[in-house]
Amino acid sequence: MTIVFLTFILMLSVFLGFELINKVPATLHTPLMSGANAISGITVVGAIALAGTGDQDLAQWLGAGAVALASINVVGGYLVTDRMLAMFKKKGGAAK
Amino acid sequence: MSSTNGLIIELAYVVSAALFILGLKLLGSAATARKGNTISSVGMLLAIVAALIDQGIVSYQWILLGMVVGGLIGAAAARLVQMTSMPEMVALFNGFGGLASLLVGWAALNGDASTFTLITIVLSVLIGGVTFTGSLIAYGKLSENLGSGAIMFRGQQVVNSLIVLGIVGASVMLSMDPLNTTWLYAVIGLSLLFGIMAVIPIGGADMPVVISLLNSYSGLAACAAGFAINNNILIVAGSLVGASGIILTQIMCKSMNRSLGNVLFSGFGSGVTEATVVEGEIKPISVEDAFYVLEAASNVAIIPGYGMAVAQAQHVVKELCELLEENGAEVNFGIHPVAGRMPGHMNVLLAEADVPYDQLLEMDEINPRMETVDVAIVIGANDVVNPAAREVESSPIYGMPVINVDTAKTVFVLKRSMASGFAGIENPLFYKENTRMLFGDAKESIGGLIREFS
């Protein structure tokens, strides 16, 4: 049953993703991509559970490595997207 | 794990999924995009906090160490990166995300997993591995540490087919015998190898497609890892990213009038020598003469390409644009969807130089106006303004939508030398009656024009 449930979630999210992204103007493609990239760092959530078992085994070390790598992705991705978006201004100079 | 604790965590994941969706929705408009990114980051923070309060966690030291190290590296990179280096930055982050998913899949592997779980573990290792090395190669090509050209060799298809067969075989064996590490290492090694092989035959100008696709893969890898460890939020967030990457990939392919398969497998631009005979002659122009033409112009369109990024000319372009406006001219920018090395590359550079985004027109908006334009200035763009895409049926880029600068009254092409574009395709634009070539470094040429104005 879990399999069906998870697959159901997958199906709905994919359709939602298509709907959300389809109308994004070309101007925002780079920030969109790096923002989405930061979201893909969600792997950190899975990695946390693996790194915190306290077992001192291979799985824990792999988990800790994954936490570090995904954190680069999350922190770097959000910050760089914000830095880019801060530069986008409309005519008239009003900062967004 | 007590059930209350588990319930709180699951509910927090629901909220953070909602924040991701809302954030992505707000990223769809320039006015709200920054807020959207912040909302999405709050969603991420919530998900991380929720994961940390899980009672299954007994030791925090390695988690915190990993987060601090990764966070510091990420923050430093985000702060220090030049806007012109944004494509390779995105590629590199992508790669780290992919490797993280590979490690999670690996760590989740154990003897009593069900067949379904084993399949998803294999998928997360596989997609994560391909994303990782593929992104590293893309990074190398974008930062010019590797040659940016397509690398093709005899028998490449055969080698790739063998790797795919090997991956399928090793994956099946691993699913049947999960405790045999030989098969695991084989899957990891082959997927890393396949990532390299998949990206080396793709030329520099096709990078917008590759980056979008790798972006999609990094999402799919997270999604597969979510199945492997039974985690909803990984599946939701991963598939949102996967879908967005696929859409961008589609848009990029459509802008080049090529199929995804053609981009990935053709090795386009690997020394294609076209014998197109172009009639007419090249007419160079001096900075001084160009200034006189621009001074008289009342409608100017600027078409930037990758060359503007290479010459770091965005700030002088903005300065020239201001001078032209003070002189009474209307100035617009025409941005081709695949100009540059990633989707929206030119827009980010011009935003950095303070060009307002409503002055940047997409190809479909600028083309109908082109006939009323007095001077179209092409800065470091080549293939995206090549009229051969409309006129020469034998041209490799025939059918690709281009910005029709040749219909403007006068065209200035700023170009370093007469070398052709990445695909080695002759550009008949340079030989047209109304085209003038302004040779030299784009930044210096524009600087010269600015000096003439003042």
Give an account of the 3D structure.
The complex is a heterodimer of chains A (96) and B (454). Chain A is mainly α and 96 residues long. Chain A is 75% helix and 0% strand. Chain B is of the alpha/beta class and 454 residues long. Chain B has three domains: 1-80; 84-271, no CATH class; 287-453, 3-Layer(aba) Sandwich (Rossmann fold). Chain B contains 17 helices and six strands. Residues 269-275 of chain B have low confidence and may be disordered.
- Tally of alpha and pi helices of chain B: 17
Largest sheet of chain A: none
| β-sheet strand percentage of chain A | under 5%
Main β sheet profile of chain B: 6 strands, parallel
The helix content of chain A, as a percent range, equals over 70%
Biggest interface reads: A-B, 83 and 111 residues
Q: What is the C-alpha radius of gyration of chain B, as a whole number of Å?
A: 25 Å
Taking the alpha carbons of the first and last residues of chain B, their distance comes to 73 Å
Order of the strands making up the biggest sheet of chain B: 3-2-1-4-5-6
- Uncertain regions spanning at least 5 consecutive residues of chain B: 269-275
Distance between the termini of chain A: 47 Å
Apparent shape of chain B: globular
Features:
heterodimer, A: mainly alpha, flat, B: 454 residues, alpha/beta, Rossmann fold, six-stranded parallel β-sheet, 58% helix, 7% strand
